[in-house]
Every structure is written in structure tokens, then in C-alpha cells.
Amino acid sequence: MSIPASTHVAPADVAGHHPGEHDAHGHPHGWRRWVYATNHKDIGTLYLLFSFTMFLLGGVLALLLRAELFQPGLQFFNPHLYNQFVTMHGLIMVFGAIMPAFVGFANWMIPLQIGASDMAFARMNNFSFWLLVPAGIVLASTFFMPGGAPAAGWTIYAPLTYQMPASMDFAIFALHIMGASSIMGSINIIVTVLNMRAPGLTLMKMPMFCWTWLITAYLLIAVMPVLAGAITMTLTDRHFGTTFFNPAGGGDPIMYQHIFWFFGHPEVYIMILPAFGIVSQVVPAFARKRLFGYTSMVYATGAIAVLSFIVWAHHMFATGMPLTGQLYFMYGTMLISVPTGVKIFNWVATMWRGSLTFETPMLFAVGFIWVFTIGGFTGLILSMASIDLQLHDTYYVVAHFHYVLVAGSLFALFAGFYFWAPKWSGVMYSEFHGQVHFWVSLVSFNVAFFPMHFLGLAGMPRRYADYPMQFADFNALATVAAFVFGLVQVYFLLFVVWPVLRHKGQPASQRPWEGAEGLEWEVPSPAPFHTFEVPPKLDASGTRVIG
């Protein structure tokens, strides 16, 4: 592949061999390449394909929910089946779509960004991915078991879990396997980042994406065993006579909520910190400026991780906790908004007086900043215990966390895909189709979810298959917009992802984005199968290779 004249190094100096030479190494082809994959790029691709498949499945469940809520009065599903859809939509989206997608980005980009030849534990990397596939199949197959899928909500609260059929046990088993996969992936990321950086690439010169994933990996190792403990106690309560959460035997169902949310709140940041990292890569590239306040961004990320462990019970203001407990968790939750605000300020400051252009990655990044800020403010409102008592388990909460997770995590994933896909595939995506994907996604998302704030303020509860006529208009509007949002993701698959997978498009240059900096832009497009076999020599900034 020809390299632009502006490049700083011959590809032979970067990857340790000349373009095309990696084909001579005899890397596997066909199904063996994927089943026995140990190359970080192939495993990253597998994670992304798996997560997008689960995203489409979870999206279909969401559209079934919205179809039922199109009008008041039962139309399609009975309330029990409706609650199965609610439960499985949440579990599939969190554990099957968002988390594996970010792990896919980590596999692809971290070795490229730090000048490593691969992930530290290549075979464990393969194992951690292939654990996900049977777990995802088991989770999805619960719909076909006697009694149907679990219908206890994605939080799987006791005592609801005691009333569920055998599919509850299979869901618990699937979550255990997914948790083991996450822990192995996290160990791999931590060892890779700490031990395999190119000489001269100090921690405080690392790209923000590597920093956010390093901190996320520590969070995962800390909290996934907590979830495992909670669901194991649920399992033994169901089958082995223990009464951890059963008041009849001296247990406490509120204890389950404490254990679950001690996992669940850091989990929220597990799903958003890598998104912060992606946006921190995209915004400087299209503003053609260095990231404003890099050091403060690193410390803010660490502060978010630490504070995420002291705010879990703001999900539980309605459980009757003492006033002092409410005050503690209320102020802790307000405090965590400060480092988050630092990040938003730094992104805006990076764009300030930059030479901005708005290709699709930048559109999704700016869209992320806007809608995530809305989600952050609604979260700050919910941190007030007195207000939360009124809004708890209403559609206001649904609107809040979808602004954080859909318009947060998902928009950042799209930004990262459009940003790095030319490097992965060697071809440019269609800018026209990318812009259509962004604008239709942005408008339909806001039309679908913003009215839910008003529904929640008016008192419409979550997880109900029916509602009074007074909520009909906003629900009809939300349903139509949700179907548009779902269909435009299929458009994205057909007109953006599929051509990229088939390498159809204009050839991508080594550095397709003028303002992009980092080691990943120092290798040819597409990135060779084996990269950085010889550790690169870096300039003082840690972002360029010197010959």
C-alpha cells in the first residue's frame, strides 16, 4: 500500500516488516482464523460482531415493548410476557451489547495506541471472547424454556427472583460466564497497558482511551465478583434452603439491593468511561488541537472511579433508609458530577477556537457531549432524595438512563467506529450514509426519549404494560420515533458496516483524518496483521514514531 508523503516513518520501521510481508507469515485463514484467533485485531472484530448482534436482538425487544405501549389497552402481549421483554432487553443490552463492544474497541486499539505487538495473554483473550457466545445463547434461549424468560427486571431483585421459573437459573449461569469473561479481559488490558507500552511512552503520555480503559478494567475486577456473589446467593435461596434475602428465614431483600447496586453503580461508569476515552480521541482530531487539560482528564477519570463506590444507594432512596444515609448518598452523588463536569468542560475547551470540521465521527462526538450532558443533569436532579422519592420508578428514570447509555455509550461507540474503521479495514465508509445515520439517530432518539421526562413527572410508572389515557399522546410519539431509531441502525448495518466489512469503498490513507495523532496513525491502512513486532521509537510527545 502506498503511504502519503507526509508520513513520519516508512512502514517497515513501524511494524517491523514491509507491507504485505505479514501475509507471508502464514496466519490462519477461513474458520480457523476466527475460532482459534489469538491476534488482538481478529478478537476485537469478533467482539464487535457479537455485540452488534446482541444489540440488534436487544433492540427488537425494545421495539416490542414500544409496540405494546403505542396505545393504552392491551394490544399484543400480556403483562407477564411484557416484563420478560423488559428484563431481557436490559440484560442483553448491558451484558451482551454495550460491555462487549467496548472490549472490542480495547482489543483493537490499545495495542496499536501503546506500540504493543499484541495483548499480553493472547490465548486467554481468545477464551474470554468464546465464553461470551454460549453465555449469550443461553441468555437468549430462556424465552423458549418452560414458563418463559425471567420477568424480574434486569436488576433481578428478590423476592421476585423466587417466583421465576427455571429460566432464572439459566440467566444466572449466563451472567456468571459473562462476568468471568469480563474479569479475564480486564486482567489482559491491565497487564498490556502497564507492561507492554513502547519505550518512552509513559503513563502520562498515553492516549485517553487507554487511560479510561485501564481504570475501567480495575472497576470490572472490583465489582464483577460482587454481582457474582449476589446472584449466587439468589441461586442458593432458590434451591438450597438458604434465606439470604427471605424475611421468613431472617434474611433481608433490601440487602440484595445494597449488594446489587454496589456492583450496579460502578457498572454505569464501566459503560461510560471508555466512551469518554473515545470522545477524548475524536474531538482533538477534528478540532485540530491537543486535548485541553489532559492531566485533569486523567485525574477526573480516576476520581469518577473512586467516587462510584460510595454512591450506590442513591438507587434506593425509596427503601426507607435513615435521613443521615439519604444525606450521605445525596451529597456523594452530587460530588461525582464534578469530575464529570471537568470532562465536558475540557471537551468544549478543546473545540474552542479549533479548526473544526464535522465529519461523521465528530458529529457523533458532539452529539454525545450534548445528549450526555442532558442525561447528567437529569441524574443530578434524581440525586436529590426528596425529588427522587417522587420520580423513583417512573419514566423520568427511564429517560435519564437512556440518555446516558444510548446517547452516551452508543453514540460514542458509533463515533469510534467511524473514526477508526478506515484504519481497521483500509477503506473509507460512505460519508453520506454516515451523516444520514447520525442525523436520523439524533432526532429520533430525542423524540423518543425526551417526552419520557414529562411522562415521569406526570407519574407514569415503569415496567407497566398499560397506562391511563392521559399518557397516550407522548407514548404514541415515543413509539414511532423508537421504530425510526431502530430502523436507522439497520440502515447503518447495510450501508456503512457491510461495505466496510467487504472492503468496498475509497482506499483509506495512513492518516485519513488531518488532525489525528497517536501511534495507530503511524501504521498503514489497513493495519497489518502483525504490528509493532519491533517496539517503535517515539518522539518526545509519545505520539509519533521517529525513524
Précis, in short:
With 547 residues, this protein is mostly helical. It is built from 16 helices and no strands. It has a single domain (33-522), classed as Cytochrome C Oxidase, Chain A, CATH 1.20.210.
Q: What is the CA-atom radius of gyration, in angstroms?
A: 23 Å
The beta-strand count equals 0
The total count of helices amounts to 16
- The stretches of 5 or more residues where confidence is low (pLDDT under 50) are 1-24
For the record, the count of structural domains works out to: 1
Strand content: under 5%
List keywords for this structure.
mainly alpha; 16 helices; disordered N terminus; Cytochrome C Oxidase, Chain A; 547 residues; globular
Description:
- The protein is an all-alpha fold and 547 residues long.
- The protein has one domain: Cytochrome C Oxidase, Chain A (Up-down Bundle), CATH 1.20.210.
- The chain is built from 16 helices and no strands.
- It has helices at 11-15, 30-35, 40-68, 79-114, 122-141, 167-195, 208-239, 253-270, 273-287, 294-307, 323-351, 360-382, 385-391, 395-425, 431-457, 472-501.
- Helix 6 runs antiparallel to helix 7 (208-239).
- The longest helix has 36 residues, at 79-114.
- It is globular.
- Residues 1-24 have low confidence and may be disordered.
- Belongs to the heme-copper respiratory oxidase family.
- Its EC number is 7.1.1.9.
- This is Cytochrome c oxidase subunit 1.
